[in-house]
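Tutorial handout. Part one gives the primary structure; part two gives the three-dimensional structure as tokens.
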Amino acid sequence: MAVLRLPTSFNIDLEFEVPEFHRRMFAWLIDLVIQVFYLIIAFRLYDDYVRSHASEITFENDPWIQRIIILPVILYHIVCEITMNGQSLGKKLLGIRIVNENGGRASISQFLIRSLIRTSDYMILIIIIYGSMFGPFIIWLLIGSVGLLIADIILVVSNKKSQRLGDILAHTILVSTKTKGSMEETVFVEVADNYVPVFPQIMKLSDKDINAIKGILDTARKKGDFNLAAMAGEKIKSHLMIDTPMPPFDFLDTLLKDYNYLSVK
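Part two.
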């Protein structure tokens, strides 16, 4: 499994394991099967409803019914990735997560961009749904969808970060959820309402810096690496001009608590 090293603002690289191509492909196929299975069930339920009510309205002649049935398919990835922190059902089963290029949690706008650039997925589903309506043009749609899929595959296998077109435009990457040194799902730390910030200078750092601090702290804890925490702590102290004898782990913990408290005030 390839290892991707992402530099932090403190000159400390975090390591992420990039999932193998076949794991990504299997995750994609699982998601596709789930979407197709939903469509089959939705169409059968709709057909049963039309027959039982002797309705002349059909899927082909009612654009609103088309939109209602297809909407969950279009929203599947974006809703899953936002609510499941960068995972669809297929990605979760295969141990894959979407993160931003800094290693932190991707934003909603990044998930939106990534989903809007999904090309081969939607083309294949359109062929499945509307295939009989396109007649001889179905072959060109099939060629187009396969071409888009091949383009994404070429990008994934040739790109250093294994990014497809949507990832490149959204500035996201896919990593293994069991990767060593990976960031936790969020930088959120529970803080009491009466908490008193110790280092308000923390607000001078960017979101990327906060993600890096959280990732370094988690990595140091998992590995029991006191030196890693100490080195990060010293760099932060120097950057923010902080003078404190606080132990490295306590210092980094306090910084995250200060950030969580001050960022919502």
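Part three, for discussion. Strands lie at 3-7, 13-17, 96-100, 172-176. The chain has a mean pLDDT of 80.
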